[in-house]
Specification:
Keywords: Leucine-rich repeat, Repeat. The chain is an all-alpha fold and 499 residues long. It is built from 16 helices and 5 strands. 46% of the residues lie in helices and 3% in strands.
Length: 499
């Protein structure tokens, strides 16, 4: 609803909107910027006035006399007999003065706007600020806290606009697609805007450095192709915050990355040789299968796994790889179904809460999320995870061996922390990690059957939730895999199949 302070000079009986003869309001706004001082500029003014008057909750014009403050300012500025262009100019001028007067009042601390006024929609202030920014060629536009449910037409006319603040407008609900035409934007602050969706075109802004979507509690998904670990995104206070933190690159130093890259390159070169040996010598293939099954049983927390169930999941992965099927969350859930002995029924996702929350953000090495998600939050979080997976599977997203291993570790970590299944989450996450590695031409996770290796500590929730612990898992896995794969290629292993 528009503030009564703003409606006084803009009632339909005083300044009725007369639409431009051709083209929509947004087209007129764009053309107007190219020819300031022409009738097209007046058409933009009229489009802006129409936008102000389009507020369904707009109150009728205030009929009182002049008084102090903004109400007196605008009641004194009424123009009743002007021609169309003069009315448009008068409207624009009043909006500019209104924005300037509002700024002075806010500086004095005499008034609070937007949400502080009970959700009143202050569209004329928004128009005034837009027009002032247009006239001054300002690189920043501040529309925060005006209670807006829509943005004014013509934002795209600000050719040098770099920073747009639309925060604290909880009725917006969505970012308008036309923001994608503001090609110079570097930063968009859309905190506390009630946003539930983001147009995919926004990500194509060529200079965008920051898109702050924090504190939008109903934002449960990003457009297809957007990565949750995109460094331009700010998602604090949204349902996506936790999983976005889980998928961020691990805290490894350049030196550590260099060493790990050398190990991974060695593993990548050795894997085709090991595959050839597995085909030629069934004994070696059995050794590899047994190592994979033992690791899967070692990471399981309920002690209910069997080697046959693990092999069932591995067989499914092999078939999907042969078919070129992509790694999806639905197929990951099927892996869990196989690992959990193919239970009857269709409900795969867990329905109970978990009491053991993640460490808080102040804890040492804490994960980015605040706790295990509730069952109702799982579908959108898994959808976000799927979007992240699909970005990594894109044809133009070829990964080097270390990046592929890091992606696989992050996938494992996300699944263990989210715990989407009733049980068997760790072995299911391990199977998904194996698949993520194999689709990039790397071996599945192969670790020696060594009691001295703290497999359970590394792979279970308590050892993977924190970023530092996940980085340790990556380093230990790479180091031991390099040595083990080399041994398998050269000599095979004396694995006791009767354990």
């Amino acid at each position: 609803m528009t503030s009564p302070l703003l409606t006084a000079p803009f009632g339909a009986s005083v300044l009725s909107f007369m639409p431009p003869e051709r083209g929509g309001a947004f087209a007129a706004a764009r053309q107007a910027a190219a020819s300031p001082g022409t009738p097209l500029l007046h058409a933009w003014y009229e489009a802006l006035q129409a936008w102000c008057e389009a507020d369904a909750a707009r109150q009728p014009p205030w009929q009182g006399g002049a008084s102090e403050g903004l109400r007196g300012l605008f009641s004194a500025r009424r123009s009743r007999g002007a021609v169309r262009d003069e009315r448009a100019e008068a409207f624009a001028g009043r909006c500019r003065e209104f924005a300037a007067a509002a700024a002075r009042i806010l500086e004095r601390g005499d008034a609070a706007f937007g949400a502080a006024q009970g959700g009143l929609e202050l569209r004329e202030i928004a128009v005034g600020r837009l027009l002032l920014a247009h006239a001054e060629g300002a690189p920043a536009l501040d529309l925060h806290g005006l209670g807006l449910t829509d943005l004014p037409p013509g934002l795209e006319t600000l050719d040098i606009l770099e920073r747009l603040d639309i925060s604290w407008n909880p009725g917006l609900g969505a970012l308008p697609e036309r923001l994608a035409r503001c090609r110079g934007l570097r930063a968009i602050d859309a905190r506390h805007c009630g946003i539930t969706e983001v147009p995919p075109q926004i990500v194509s802004l060529p200079r965008l450095e920051t898109l702050d979507l924090s504190e939008n509690a109903e934002l449960r998904a990003l457009p297809a192709g957007w990565r949750l670990d995109d460094p331009r995104l700010r998602l604090e206070g949204t349902p996506l915050q936790g999983i976005a933190g889980l998928l961020r690159p691990l805290p490894l130093t350049p030196r550590q990355r260099g060493t790990l890259a050398e190990h991974m390159d060695t593993i990548a070169r050795a894997w085709p040789l090991l595959q050839a040996r597995m085909r030629a010598e069934p004994r070696v293939a059995d050794q590899v299968g047994l190592l994979r099954a033992r690791l899967s049983l070692a990471v399981r927390t309920d002690g209910m796994g069997t080697q046959e169930a693990c092999e069932d999941a591995h067989q499914a992965i092999a078939e999907w790889l042969d078919n070129g099927d992509p790694l999806t969350t639905a197929r990951i859930m099927e892996l869990g179904w196989r690992i959990n002995f193919r239970p009857s029924g269709t409900g795969l996702l867990r329905t109970q809460e978990y009491a053991d929350d993640l460490p808080g953000p102040q804890g040492a090495g804490a994960a980015a999320g605040a706790g295990r998600p509730s069952p109702c939050a799982l579908p959108p979080l898994l959808a976000a995870l799927e979007s992240w997976l699909s970005a990594g599977d894109a044809p133009d997203a070829a990964l080097d061996p270390l990046s592929a291993m890091e992606r696989a570790v992050l996938l494992y970590r996300a699944l263990v922390v989210l715990r989407p299944l009733h049980k068997g989450n760790e072995p299911t996450a391990l199977a998904a990690m194996d698949w993520a590695l194999q689709e990039q031409g790397l071996p599945p996770v192969l670790l020696p059957d060594d009691p001295a290796l703290p497999t359970a500590v590394l792979f279970r929730f308590s050892g993977i939730a924190a970023a530092d612990a996940a980085a340790e898992l990556l380093q230990e896995t790479v180091r031991h895999m390099d040595a083990l794969v080399a041994r398998l290629v050269q000599h095979g292993l004396a694995v006791d199949a009767a354990d």
